[in-house]
Design brief:
Strand order of the largest sheet: 3-2-4-1-5-6
Number of strands: 6
Largest sheet: 6 strands, mixed
Radius of gyration: 18 Å
Structural class: alpha/beta
Oligomer: single chain
Distance between the termini: 56 Å
Strand content: 15-25%
Shape: globular
Number of helices: 6
Amino acid sequence: MPASRLHLVRHGEVFNPEGVLYERIDGFGLSELGEQMAQAAADSLVASGRSVRKLIASPLLRAQQSAMPIAEAFGLDPVLDERVIEPWNEFRGLKIGARAVLKRPSLALKLLNPSKPSWGEPFVDISARMLDSVLENGSTDLPGDVVIVSHQLPIWMLYRSTQGLALPHDPRSRRCSLSSITSFEFRDDKLVEVDYREPGVEFASSIEKDAIDGGAV
């Protein structure tokens, strides 16, 4: 039967002291804060009072680690799905910015067509594989919800495609923060967004506030 609701959860903060574009490179796991953000996302799902019957995750380490608190909370074994993985990118392993382009002018050639984009996996391909995964995984044996732990751009592509929006966009406009939860329902055979929450941001903000209050004794 169709899932009552589909929740697309972004992974938590990644430990990345060098500030490189980690893309699909092995070994990039969650930071300590990222683990706490992932727990906040799981706690938010539990607090909603909904029954989660299936858990899907990207095969990348940061997504699997972010899925762990959800798996423990609902007694589920995560199923890995390559279709919800981070998009490939020609800048993997690099620190991206004006300085990097000045050092390697050839990088500028990869920026010629942002609507495709020319530097990585095409937006239409990301959208198609995400939708394929959602349609296949969007059912449960018992009434309840499905959670898919993925990455910012795949979730954003799914959102834009299901809302009838153009896929090319300004990356600064993405509304998909760390450990956020974007929720959809099937209505008249269409995937419709019904909720968006940012438990990870709220948790990080509370930590920062506590640190400020604690230092103001």
